[in-house]
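Listing S7. Sequence submitted for prediction.
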Amino acid sequence: QVQLVESGGGLVTAGGSLRLSCAASGRTFSNTAMGWFRQAPGKEREFVASISRSGANTRYADSVKGRFTISRDNAKNTVHLQMNSLKPEDTAVYYCAAGPSYSGRESYQYDYWGQGTQITVSS
C-alpha cells in the first residue's frame, strides 16, 4: 500500500508559477515510479508527467513539455511538479499517482492515487 497526499494547489494568474508536492508513505518510495495526472471539468483524466524510480528518467505530455518539471526526493519520500508559464487551460484537479513504471501514460497503469489538488489559472 502507498498513501499519497498532494499539496500546493491554488489560484494563479496566467504566466505565473506553482509547485505541487506529493508526500508518500507506505511501501518503499524509491521502488515506485511516480506520475502526475490532471482532470478538468467535463474531461477525462490525462497524463501530465512521470518519473522513474531513481529520478533519472522523466516523461511529459506535449501540452506541458518545456513548462512543467517533475522531480523527486527519495530521501524525503516526495515528488514535485514545478509548473511555470501557466495557462488557463492548465486549470484542473491535479493528482499524484504511484505505479510500477514511469512509462505509463494511462490512469489504469498506476495503482495508487492521491486525493487531488485544485489548480485554477485565471486569464
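Caption to Listing S7: primary sequence and predicted C-alpha cells for the chain studied. The chain is about 0% helix and 50% strand. The mean pLDDT is 95.
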